[in-house]
Amino acid sequence: MSDAVLRVQDLRTEFAVRGGVVKAVDGVSFEVGRGRILGLVGESGSGKSVTAYSILGLIEAPGRIAGGQVLLNGVDLTQLRGEALRQIRGAQIAMVFQDPMMTLNPVLKVSTQMVAAVKAHDKVSTAEALERAGQALVTVGIPSPQERLDAYPHQLSGGMRQRVAIAIALLHRPAVILADEPTTALDVSIQGQILAEVRRLASETGTAFVWVTHDLAVVSSLADDICVMYAGKIVEAGSADAVMAEPHHPYTAGLLASVPAEHEPGTRLQQVPGQAPSLADLGQGCAFAPRCAKASPVCNTPPPLQQLANGRSALCHHPIQWT
Length: 323
Fold this sequence. Notes:
Layout: E1 4-17, E2 20-33, E3 37-41, H1 48-55, E4 63-72, E5 75-76, H2 82-88, E6 93-96, H3 110-119, H4 126-139, H5 145-149, H6 158-170, E7 176-180, H7 188-205, E8 208-213, H8 216-222, E9 225-230, E10 233-239, H9 240-245, H10 250-257, E11 305-307, E12 313-315
Parallel strand pairs: 3-8, 3-9, 6-7, 7-8
Antiparallel strand pairs: 1-2, 1-4, 4-5, 9-10, 10-12, 11-12
């Protein structure tokens, strides 16, 4: 896409463990355009969260980024270190974590934390920083912003804390926000409200979102595009509507078949057989082959990335064909 603000190209992240090297992210590539939302979907252990942390440069020993590029408006973040990277984090690219208490200090008022976040990148007065903080809270749909600014995190509900975390990420109007399953712990009604706010924010502010989740119901209502991850690789990519309607990779089809909303009440849910493989011992062939009904002897060799119609792609020897 020509308006891409974030380009991830052949990203590889490894962890040194006893007995070898784990390839947690293995050749991941995708793009996100201004104001668009990309859903990064997969089971636990698929590498989606490690991908987000790698983009932001948050991988520490025994892990390392072994190769690839993360281009934010043309600047390769993998080549930045120390202060140069710190100046970009928060200002041009930000992250919202699954647990807002990872973002919020429990012993400091919301106002103190948001003012510090503003002043970390902009030399402004405390009064101006407070005004920006209040405006950010209004942007994410928080009523009575002055009251919330004067509160401690434990005085807010889980949904309200997550909105504050999103507001902090938005303080500098970054080009990209990475969201690591930020609504997983919230009830459905609050989750729906936050997803609606995120869609509105992407449209109105032009901020691009990479939304990491295992929940296909979330991405189906939120994302413009979807990348499905399995065993450290993207196995399918395309527009959200197309992927949800006609999945090409058997793993994607299995995930969709296991979604309760896709079945009549009282019917037995389908499931993907087996379990995700160990990343320390994947072998040379398709990592999904042991769980795949379409597997054949050729699946013992590395699967090709097949470019399909309408910008779709699937990493599979036997992609599902739709007429």
